[in-house]
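Quick start: what a row looks like.
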Amino acid sequence: MRPNRTAPDLLNHLVLWLSSGHISRRATVAAGAGGVMALGHPPFDWLAIGLFGLVLCGVIFLGANGVRQAAWIGWLCGLGYFAVLLHWVVEPFLVYPEQDGWMAPFALFFLSGGLALFWAAAFAFARRFASLVVLCLALTVAEGLRSYVLTGFPWGLIGYVWLNSPVSQLGAWVGPHGLTLLTLTLVFLPLAVLRATRSWTALAVLLGGGLAVLVLGYWQGQDPAPRMTDTTLRLIQPNAPQDQKWRPENRELFFQRQLGFTRQDPRPDLIVWPETAIPVLLNDADDVLAQIATTANGTTVVLGAQRYDAWGYYNSLAVLDPRGQISHRYDKHHLVPFGEYIPFLGLFGILGGGLAAQFGGGYQPGVGPTVLAVDGVGKFLPLICYELVFPHEIGSVSQRADFMLQITNDAWFGTFSGPYQHLAQARMRAIEQGLPMVRAANTGVSAVIDAKGKLLQHLPLGQAGYLDAVLPAPGPPTVYSRFGDGLVFLLLGLLAVGYILCRRGFGD
């Protein structure tokens, strides 16, 4: 009679099957597991499937034979994850396919493969200890490092998979890297306990802890209703496709479309145009700005534009007062590599100034994040497109704003996943900072988000129009807004020390 297999037996059997199989089997499972993980993010938002992919990554790690193979497995898991998650990166190269299309597959492979190196290092380090617990810590550190190294790219962090669940509200306490650590712990720790002890009691305790986390997140997100101000905003969405936006015959069309949305009654307290909304340089835009001010009829307008000075060209945000004068100006400081400037220019000079740059030398960076004020509206933190994805930079401003305002041109990201992932990160920034997020996007999704990350109103992707909405009130300062990533990195250090002491005292 064949004995019944328990869950620990099945887990160990699966690990053995993977470790004893041909390298192609392990490679396929590793890359596939990473790809499945990515389905937990927009546009799919399949939380359970994404977590299942992470489980598979943990299982195949257990079957790794040595540090070198663990590194290879980690790289393949990362490659699958980033290739599926970031497949939209080919879209900018397809705006002008005859010129840039040949670079699209190389961009996806090298970006995905480069980011996967962080995962490879984490898997290799954890394999030295043969521990899933160490993998939790190492992979969290790896995700943190990719947020900072070489200007950083924290797009699609593992912890973002919780966005549409109560767990996301814990981002107000621990931030994105804390959510990543929590995710890895909830998945890998039960696997480690199940394989090492075969104790159903211990597993039940861990699963109970996971349920407690869900309850805590649900409690954190509870509010009777979002508090609102008496300020009305108008978000302008012209829906100018990127391959048409700068054509001479279309510039006036899209400009007049924005003017038409601007003049509609009733009058709001603030009107917001998207990134690079006007067809001339800000230095030469006196007539254009006067026309906008006249059309706005006494309402302050925030708009995106390009400008230049003796140092070069800038991607800027301008605040246009009712008289048609620029009262405030902000220059984008965190530029998109290969999009707005070219790093290692001697090596990649063939790309000119960057895909999104209208001028050969690309853009120059501004001085850094700041807070601007509009009379009768309040203080806001300006963000231009890509700057939104850096939570540590948003939290670096000493003065607390009343809301965050993003202008963006997501036409570069296609229509399938990129814009929705960008919107998801906007919601995470609102949760982390306890501040409303207002975003005006050229092709969408323009939206108003409250301080809990709830999408209150929005204009769908690919639709021209405008949105009048009441500005939500700010929430109280969050723990993450006060301390940033420092608390999580301190926690990681303490956990690492605790693990070492436990190994020395009690064995692994």
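That is the whole record. The chain has a mean pLDDT of 90. Residues 171-197 form the longest helix (27 residues).
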